[in-house]
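Side project, low priority. Logging it here so it doesn't get lost.
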Amino acid sequence: MADDQHYDVVVIGTGAGGGTLGHRLATSNKRILWLERGPFLPRELDNWDSGAVFVRGKYLTHEQWYNRHDDEFQPEVNYYVGGNTKFYGAALFRLRPQDFGEIAHYGGISPAWPIDYTDLEPYYVQAEHLYEVHGTTARIRPRDHSAQRTPIPRCLTNRGFSSSVMILKGWACIRSICRLGWTLLRTRPDGRP
């Protein structure tokens, strides 16, 4: 890169934060430089193998980090274009209004946030629209304009997706809401892109 290059904005990373910011800035007529530490993730069958991804850690960085006691550990970090969102499972959670308040727990009291749910709610709506989030916000009680989310569609032609939906329905017994940002594009008969 030449030393005389000028950029209005430099975005570091292409994960959830950097990717979303870059998308928003793309139409701003500003000169934007995106910096990413890693290469594109190779497209291979192991991308879809939870054993390779999560058990064997095939895509994790090999560097070691240190905790406050100077003990080494391997972080759960992937350096690829798209960052850790390449492996996040498309679960897009909203904090609940009560999550912003003071919370007492085993380790003490977590202080209230300096903002509340209503400050972030319009941004949740924008992000959920951008990432095509499917699912319900019924237990969150959002304003009317954000309640337009659609339920997870049935996908009878994609066994992997259908079984994931069945697992998610099974989780309902623990009263959890899992809103997904999955978009099915092209699939082969085995359900993989």
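Brief comment: The longest strand covers residues 9-12.
Revisit when time allows.
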